Amino acid sequence: MNHLASESTTLDSPDRRTIFPIDTLKQLNTRSTVKGSIRFAAHLLILAVSGYLWGTNIGQNWSIALPALAIYGFGLAAMFAPMHECSHRTAFADNAVNDAVGWVAGLLSLYNVTFFRRYHKWHHRFAQDPTKDPELSDPLPQLIGEYLLSISGLTWWWGKLTTHTRVALGQLESYSFIPETARAEVIRSTRLQLAVYAIAIAISIYAHQPWFVTYWLFPLFIGQPLLRFILLAEHTGCSTDSNPLTNTRSTLTLFQLQFLMWNMPFHAEHHLYPSMPFHQLPIAHQQLQPHLAHVGLGYINVNRSIVGGFNSTVGVSSNAIDRI
């Protein structure tokens, strides 16, 4: 990760509608099934190779197994990225392909794209609004202990368990971002996802092999902290107004992270133009960077700044404990 500086800022905040000419913006919004397919295939190949090296070296050669586990685990967690991209239906030119790939990517990363699409639509519409942005339904960490708890992924696991259970049981009353017309689809999709997990667990038990744990549950647990580390940087410490130039952070990072995250480190660009496909975001960044209030140079620096703003008291608040 880049350690050059923590943040660059700008006072220049033009109307985002004037930054790109209409023709240029139209070109930048062009989706590509070829580029989406290549990126998804590469992501799957990374999972296949690292997963194989992890599985074949457990208990034999830990110098290979542990690095492979780290890559494989983060690769699984980072399936959040294509799921997210497909929820916008920008990864591929065909909406049916977006929906299918998004569902598979969500299955691997423990997200449900059908639910997430509605959740995320509200996040974009009400980003940083503490009363309406669903991403702010859980308070941001204010203490070192809360931060470590959040980065560990434990609260995320608990949230996924409770949310999937509620949705599968049809208890959608607390999810105001899911319209009545979409509820049946969201429930059906979530139940199908849980059924796939149940079948995978049953196969593992029948074969007397811990496949479900070895190749999915444990690696995903290992990969989640790095994903939490990345996602926490997207809006934390930014403005709470409705201006994407100031309420969202882009982070310049290693190519490997940028690749597996499908260019989501260019997050301010994504919030400015949600219809812009992942492969166009680095191009858009070249012109947008001077206008962005928050451009972090490396996730370590961004997280260091976040932690630096905490109360010096080390501990976990009662609110954080309640969320375990």
List the helices and strands and how they pair.
Layout (H helix, E strand, L loop, with lengths): L21 H7 L4 H25 L4 H16 L2 H8 L7 H15 L3 H13 L18 H9 L1 H15 L14 H24 L4 H21 L12 H4 L2 E3 L2 H6 L6 H6 L8 H8 L6 E3 L1 H10 L9 H5 L2
Parallel strand pairs: 1-2
Protein architecture, described:
The protein has helices at 22-28, 33-57, 62-77, 80-87, 95-109, 113-125, 144-152, 154-168, 183-206, 211-231, 244-247, 255-260, 267-272, 281-288, 299-308, 318-322; strands at residues 250-252, 295-297. With 324 residues, the chain is mainly α. It has one domain (16-322). A two-stranded parallel ribbon has the order 1-2. The protein starts with 21 loop residues before the first helix and ends with a helix.
Keywords:
324 residues; mainly alpha; two-stranded parallel sheet; disordered N terminus; disordered C terminus
Number of strands: 2
Strand content: under 5%
Spans where pLDDT lies below 50 across 5 or more residues: 1-5, 312-324
Cα-to-Cα separation, first versus last residue: 30 Å
What does the radius of gyration come to?
Answer: 20 Å
Number of helices: 16
Helix content: 55-70%
Largest sheet: 2 strands, parallel
Spatial order of strands in the largest sheet: 1-2
Based on CA inertia axes, which overall geometry fits?
globular
Helix and strand pattern: HHHHHHHHHHHEHHHEHH
Total number of domains: 1
